[in-house]
Structures are given as C-alpha cells and as structure tokens.
Amino acid sequence: MAADAGSLRLYVDESALGLGKALAAARKDTIHVGHPLIPECPLGALDTDWIPAVAARGLIAIGRDKRIRTKHEEIRQLTLANLRVFRVGGKRDASSWDWLVRVVRYWEAIEEVIRNRPDGPWFYLINEGGLAELPLDR
To answer: Between 10 and which of 30, 95, 131, 136 could a Cys-Cys bridge form, CB atoms 3.0 to 4.6 Å apart?
Structure first.
C-alpha cells in the first residue's frame, strides 16, 4: 500500500526507520524520514529541522529517541510547533519487529489519543504495558 499525500497523518523519524518503513508499507497514512513525500526531511535531518517541518504538515511523529525530551532546543521546537509525539519506549534495545508488534498491539489506544487530543503539543510513551503521557519540560 503506497502512501497517499492527501491522507498523511503519521511521520516516523530516523530513530525508528525500520519501524517507519514497515508502517509505510502497510499504511497509506504513514511516511518516514527520507520518504519522497516529505523531501524537507531527508536522512540525517536534525531534530530541530524535522520537528517544525513535520508539525507544519500537521503530522504526528513516532520515534524511539529516548533523549529527545531532555534536549532543551528540541523540546522548545516541539512545544513551539505544537508537535504531537509517540515514542516507543523500553529499557532494552529491541528489533524493529519488536517495536512493530508493540505499536500494532496498542494501535487502537494510539488512535484514541489522536481522536481525543487533536491539538498539540503532547508526548506519549508507548511502553510494554500501554500508553503513558509524559510532561513536556518547558
């Protein structure tokens, strides 16, 4: 299933590129860093570059970068841009398959957050046991 520019909702950053490619292959509303439908976000794009670009398109970001919430400039950009973020959490490194299984397991909960929280900024962690909202340190 190819992505459809008119129905894009989700963007997967480089920290979860394997997951992004799998989701983009399965869903027409998902793209990832380096995808031709988002040329402003090439491979290697800095967080401070892709965050406002993704937010400007109204996309929701998915990633695995556990340090993004501790970087002052990234949090500032995320907050200013009103970006909505899901981060796949976990204490151990896992394969793209493991991350995909987790995301699919909680897909309905993800969709519920998207329905109930149309405006950002917000940041949710996708843990082994479900979703948890994390405060944005401003």
So the answer is: 30
Asked if 74 and 66 touch (Cβ cutoff 8 Å), the reply is no
CA–chain centroid gap for 53, Å, is 13
CB-based contact 42:34 (threshold 8 Å): yes
Q: Look up residue 89 and give its amino acid.
A: G
- Tell me: the pLDDT tens digits for 50-78? 999 999 999 999 999 877 767 788 889 99
pTM of the model: 0.93
82 neighbors 1 (Cβ within 8 angstroms): no
Sign, CA torsion 35/122/135/138: positive
**Backbone angle region of 57, left / alpha / beta, with phi > 0 → left and psi within -120 to 50 → alpha:** alpha
Q: How many residues belong to the chain?
A: 138
Task: Report residues of the chain scoring pLDDT below 50.
Answer: none
Domain architecture of the chain: domains with CATH: 5-133 (3.40.50)
